[in-house]
Specification:
By secondary structure, the protein is an alpha/beta fold. The protein has two domains: 136 residues, Immunoglobulin-like; 233 residues, Purple Acid Phosphatase, chain A, domain 2 (4-Layer Sandwich). 22% of the residues lie in helices and 19% in strands. A seven-stranded mixed sheet has the order 1-6-3-2-11-10-9. Strands 5-4-7-8 form a four-stranded antiparallel sheet. It holds the Pfam family PhoD.
């Protein structure tokens, strides 16, 4: 499909973020770019789609760059069939190191409640797997809805059999009872690699303590700056997304995703993790989530009476470590670095699916105060006292505190 000057300038302006808004055509046309045989695995993290709307959907991939490559192009093709004999969209997109060569393309001017197929082609002709997705029904469409739920998917590899079972069950289901969406409610990844340049190996928990849940070793294993945190978080997403069952699910179904705590740390709130505030790590974790877990934020639709407040990630212009201070209403720390971290992205939103379903996607980590814990006083938090961890989840997982508390079942014949 030819690209006019205005469209080219629009694409060029957004290229640094590797995020594009693209119109599909109403009439199909023949492809001008064909895939070629290539031994290179150019798209090792597969493809994905997210947040369908009646006239739009977001498509995602990541291109593995050639050595020393800083900037490259990828062709996106969208077709009404998986044969790609006719196309509704063919567009060359630019991706760079700034987004770790991920691409997020919001395709609009699509038909409601309609299935589409898509793929990406690298400059050498290497082609991604084919992705399948669909748009949402119109808001007044009265039809059944089937939503699958996913969460808490820790490593090791080849252990995502639940996704394989989900796919198999859906293939055997009646045509009218197939899955419409996979709703992922958080903990997409756990932990952080000890070396941000190395992938997690089978059996490792990622340098985040027992079960990848966090602890003092996490701060010691990675240099404390934004770039190192970002590199580490990107690596863990790239590792998780090599799992074949997770890849198949992402390729076959549109996802709607929100984070929980382990995308950043254990039992986190605002920019707090591992016994202290860490705004740089929080901002880096947010950027990696935005890059590797596709979603529509700024372009998310409002629903009647509720305007959309979701906003795409924007890297803070200035951010550094500082203790959490100036606690206001709802225990929100108004310290400027904490606010910069949590305001770098707004991801709560509403997804409407026909006449029967509004998915209210809530962010339960960015704006909340700490969990119930006698150590979480304002004085202890501002002083970064070790008392805040006395009854933390990490202490319980170590077992000693939990064992002591359990003795109450036996003391004084069960009546301590």
């Amino acid at each position: 499909m030819p690209t006019g000057r205005r469209d080219f300038l629009k694409l060029s302006a957004s290229a640094l973020a590797s995020y594009f808004t693209l119109p599909a055509t109403r009439k199909t046309f023949a492809a001008s770019v064909d895939p070629l045989d290539s031994a290179r695995e150019a798209f090792p993290q597969g493809v994905a789609s997210a947040d369908p709307q009646p006239g739009a959907v977001l498509l995602w991939t990541r291109l593995e760059p050639l050595p020393d490559e800083q900037r490259t192009q990828v062709v996106l093709q969208l077709s009404p069939t998986n044969l790609f004999e006719e196309l509704l969209l063919e567009q060359t997109l630019v991706t760079t190191t700034e987004s770790d060569f991920t691409i997020r393309a919001m395709v609009h001017e699509l038909e409601p409640d309609t299935k589409y197929y898509y793929r990406f082609i690298a400059p050498d002709g290497a082609t991604s797997r084919v992705g399948r997705t669909w748009t949402a029904p119109l808001p007044d469409a009265e039809r059944p809805v089937m939503i699958a739920l996913a969460s808490c998917q820790s490593w090791p590899p080849n252990r995502y059999g639940a996704y394989r079972r989900l796919i198999q069950d859906d293939q055997m289901a009646d045509k009218d009872s197939g899955i419409d969406l996979i709703l992922h409610v958080g903990d997409y990844v756990y932990g952080l690699p000890a070396d941000p340049d190395e992938p997690i190996e089978p059996g490792q928990t990622g340098g985040m303590g027992r079960g990848g849940r966090g602890g003092s070793d996490a701060r010691e294993s990675v240099p404390e700056n934004f770039d190192s945190y970002l590199s580490g978080h990107r690596q863990i997403y790239k590792t998780y997304l090599t799992d074949p069952d997770l890849q198949d699910a992402r390729a076959l179904y549109p996802f709607v995703a929100i984070w929980d705590d382990h995308e950043y740390g254990n039992d986190v709130w605002q920019s707090y993790t591992d016994g202290r505030a860490n705004p740089e790590k929080r901002a880096a974790a947010t950027q990696a989530w935005f890059e590797f877990v596709p979603q529509i934020l700024t372009g998310s639709l409002s629903v009647p009476g509720v305007p959309n407040e979701a906003r795409d990630y924007r890297k803070p212009s200035s951010i550094a470590y500082a203790p959490m201070t100036n606690f206001g209403e709802g225990f929100l720390s108004e310290e400027q670095n904490n606010l910069a971290a949590i305001r770098s992205q707004t991801c709560y939103r509403t997804i409407r699916w026909g006449a029967y379903v509004d998915l209210v996607i809530t962010d339960n980590r960015s704006y909340r105060g700490p969990s119930a814990n006698p150590g979480y006083s304002v004085a202890n938090l501002e002083a970064e006292s070790s008392s805040v961890n006395v009854f933390s989840g990490f202490s319980l997982f170590e077992g000693e505190t939990l064992y002591t508390l359990s003795q109450g079942h036996k003391a004084n014949e069960g009546s301590p």
